[in-house]
Specification:
It is built from 2 helices and 9 strands; from the N terminus they run E-H-E-E-E-E-H-E-E-E-E. The strands form 2 sheets. A 6-stranded mixed β-sheet has the order 4-5-2-3-9-8. Strands 1-6-7 form a 3-stranded mixed β-sheet. The protein has helices spanning 6-18, 69-72, and strands spanning 3-4, 25-32, 38-45, 52-57, 60-65, 76-82, 85-91, 97-98, 104-106. It has one domain (3-94): Hypothetical Protein Aq_1857, Chain: A (Sandwich). It is 16% helix and 46% strand. The protein starts with a strand and ends with a strand.
């Protein structure tokens, strides 16, 4: 469902350890907003909700709320530490348009 790159895995594990959240997982979602209409959400969490879907890739557990699943099928989560800014990057094959910062998209 969602693929996690090696760099995203390493970064997420390091950040969870720094935040003293070693038993957490990555929560990914989509909400309305941004310059393209939809925005990605990413957080570390340790609570599973009734309507969540659980996935695992590259040894990392990823949880997505039921409403966001269709928007994120086939997405790859990566991490960039380059000159254009640090952060997690979503490569979403379902997005027909993305904004310049990569934080929002449309279908």
């Amino acid at each position: 469902m969602i693929k996690v790159s090696d760099l995203a895995k390493e970064t997420a594990l390091r950040m969870m350890a720094e935040d003293n959240k070693p038993n957490s997982f990555i929560r990914v979602g989509v909400k309305g907003g941004g310059c393209s209409g939809l925005m990605y959400e990413l957080d570390f969490d340790n609570q599973i909700n009734e309507d969540d879907k659980e996935f695992e890739d590259n040894g990392i557990k990823v949880v997505v709320d039921k409403k966001s699943v269709l928007y994120l099928v086939g997405t790859t989560l990566d991490y960039s530490g380059g000159l254009n800014g640090k952060g997690f990057i979503f490569t979403n094959p379902n997005a027909s348009r993305t904004c310049g910062c990569g934080e929002s998209f449309s279908l």
